[in-house]
Amino acid sequence: MQRFRERLVPGVGPMLAALLLLPAVYIIFLPISPVIGAFACVLLTALVEVLLVVTAPIVAVHDGLLVAGAARIPVGLTGETEQFRGPDAVQARGPGLDARAYTMFRGWVDPVVRVTVEDPDDPAPYWLVSTRRPDELRAALAAERTTAAS
């Protein structure tokens, strides 16, 4: 059963920033031909925009697993969760980050959730994961943990 699923697609800001490719690509191809330049800038910019959406990682809680991008961990091996927003999230992602932690965060998503790893064989003390819905992720982990313990 899937309790939580979120694709971390870029927001408006990164998508608009990718549009800056339009004039750059056009200028590169302009010496060849203005038509080829116009075609190339539209095609390459559209390709970048599509790739930003298609390659966006997924955060999910289902079937007893916490999934963050390509990584998976059984929910039974996780412990406390804590969410951070704003300056606290910046601290958690930067100066307060343990180098051993597994991280899967995106700059365009402010909130992060820290999930403690209870597996003594895992060198990562915690996972730090971006999510736009930290309360829902924490609730899904708690519910999945309860189900797994039953």
Global geometry = elongated
Q: What's the β-strand tally?
A: 8
Number of helices: 5
The helicity comes to: 40-55%
Strand adjacency order, main sheet? 1-2-3-4
Could you say which structural class the secondary elements and strand pairing correspond to? alpha+beta
Q: Percent of residues in beta strands?
A: 25-35%
Order of helices and strands: EHHHEEEEHEEEH
Give a description of the structure.
With 150 residues, this protein is an alpha+beta fold. The protein contains five helices and eight strands, in the order βαααββββαβββα. A hairpin with a 2-residue loop joins β3 and β4 (71-74). α2 runs antiparallel to α3 (34-54). The two termini are 15 Å apart.
Essential attributes:
alpha+beta, 41% helix, 8 strands, four-stranded antiparallel β-sheet, four-stranded mixed β-sheet, 5 helices
Provide a short characterization of the protein structure.
Helix content is 41%, strand content 27%.
Task: Show the helix and strand layout.
Layout: E1 2-7, H1 12-18, H2 21-29, H3 34-54, E2 58-62, E3 65-68, E4 71-74, E5 78-84, H4 86-93, E6 102-104, E7 112-117, E8 126-130, H5 134-149
Parallel strand pairs: 6-8
Antiparallel strand pairs: 1-2, 2-3, 3-4, 5-7, 7-8
